[in-house]
Amino acid sequence: AAEAAAAAKDGAGIGGGGSGKRPADKAELAVSKKAKKSKQVEAAVEPPAEPPASSDKKAKKKAAKAAAAAADEPSEMAEVGDAELARSGKAIVKQLYKEHADVAALRGDELEALYSQRCITVEGTGIKPVLKFEQTGLPANMLHATRDFQEPSPIQSQCWPIIMSGHDLIGIAATGSGKTLAFGLPALAHIQAQRDAGVVSGKGPFALAMAPTRELAMQIAQVLVEAGSKCNVRCLCVYGGVPKRDQMDALRAGVEFVVGTPGRLEDLMNEGACQLRQVTYLVLDEADRMLDLGFEPHIRNICSHVRCDRQTLMFSATWPTAVQKLAANFLCSSAIKVTVGSQDLAASHSISQVVEVIDPRARGDRLLQLLQTHHKSRKNRIIIFVLYKKEAPQVEQLLQRRGWSCAAIHGDISQGQRTAAVESFKAGTIPLLIATDVAARGLDIPDVEVVINYSFPLTTEDYVHRIGR
């Protein structure tokens, strides 16, 4: 009312012209009476009681408690995971990296040339790649696993400093790009840091990696078992197709790093043999293939038992919408994406491709002719892909009858037979391998000179994965 009166007074002064009278007097009187009445009404209404001093103390205490809880809340948490484990556990030690002076000295134009030469694209960080193994800052016992290599691969050079800086990571790279050591060596350093800080203790596991197939899981574990043996990190591979008993006994005895397929991991978790409460480092390898094989529900269930402030790494050969959604659920929103090559599905430009359209009944004879041309030495490695499980033994018998040394891997043989066939092929004692898409997915086999598609795959993705070895 007072403001209205003042406004009325000001307005009268401006609009009064040169008259000596005050035409706003009546308006002021009306406002004054109204204000007086308003005060009388306000006086009749009981004002709100002042809160007692004890209530003030309770409110302040409650606010302080909420502030403390907010301070203890992990700053970044994945959507899928156990939030209570994250809140109740000690803070995870993620920052393990100190930039080497030579890396810090890299100029912008040098980085641009390096990324162009190595076909590296990075989204979300200014962390520079390492060019030499010693620039990682990892100790000699961990770098022992790199002794047979001259320099880091593109995926390793960029991923190592990002991972050891504590970031979640999405890596898009083809099979055979060095992904296992890209996530494996930082995992060893991560495990050691958690033990030293008392974040984890006891039997573990403290790190977990999932892969779509038994063969790929075994391949990853083989690398990590050797690397871990130099720094007191035990690695166990768990997969289906074999009895659970030995795997359960090993888990109960204690391991630091578990690698496995989602189905068997979920079984062991549900039976209480594999406790994931202390896992602080999670890897999803060949994520696109795990989705293709229908493992998403299993992965979600497994990850929901891992603390949601973990460090999560996801690797995939492609970047379709389904994988993007998976990344949004399982990784922190600030995850960094590293692509080596193209994130779009494409066959390697370095591979010569020949397509022949023939009568299906003539495939057997044509296969024998191709082997005569491309396998004269009978020593070079060749993979022959078939679409159906039943085709694999048929082609194997055809070739064996003609005197060719070969082996087949498919879903209808035991895990022991599959492992023996792959190892013999890698060693060169059996230079011809017949395989279905599922059995061979993710296998990193060096020096494969020729891939023959005896029967064409159902999808373009499978074709690209077949020939990109």
TrEMBL record:
It comes from the Eukaryota. Its main location: nucleus. It is found in: Nucleus, Nucleolus. Keywords: ATP-binding, Helicase, Hydrolase, Nucleotide-binding, Nucleus, Ribosome biogenesis, rRNA processing. Its EC number is 3.6.4.13. InterPro entries: DEAD/DEAH_box_helicase_dom (IPR011545), DEAD/DEAH_RhlB (IPR044742), Helicase_ATP-bd (IPR014001), Helicase_C-like (IPR001650), P-loop_NTPase (IPR027417), RNA-helicase_DEAD-box_CS (IPR000629). Pfam families: DEAD, Helicase_C. CDD domains: DEADc (cd00268), SF2_C_DEAD (cd18787). Residues 1-75 are annotated as: Disordered. Residues 1-11 have a biased composition (Low complexity). Coiled coil: none annotated. Residues 160-337 form the Helicase ATP-binding domain. It is an enzyme of class 3 (hydrolase). PROSITE patterns: DEAD_ATP_HELICASE, HELICASE_ATP_BIND_1, HELICASE_CTER. Residues 366-469 form the Helicase C-terminal domain. GO terms for molecular function: ATP binding; hydrolase activity; nucleic acid binding; RNA helicase activity. Belongs to the DEAD box helicase family. DDX5/DBP2 subfamily. ATP-dependent RNA helicase required for 60S ribosomal subunit synthesis. Involved in efficient pre-rRNA processing, predominantly at site A3, which is necessary for the normal formation of 25S and 5.8S rRNAs. This is RNA helicase. It comes from Chlamydomonas euryale. The lineage of its organism: Eukaryota, Viridiplantae, Chlorophyta, core chlorophytes, Chlorophyceae.
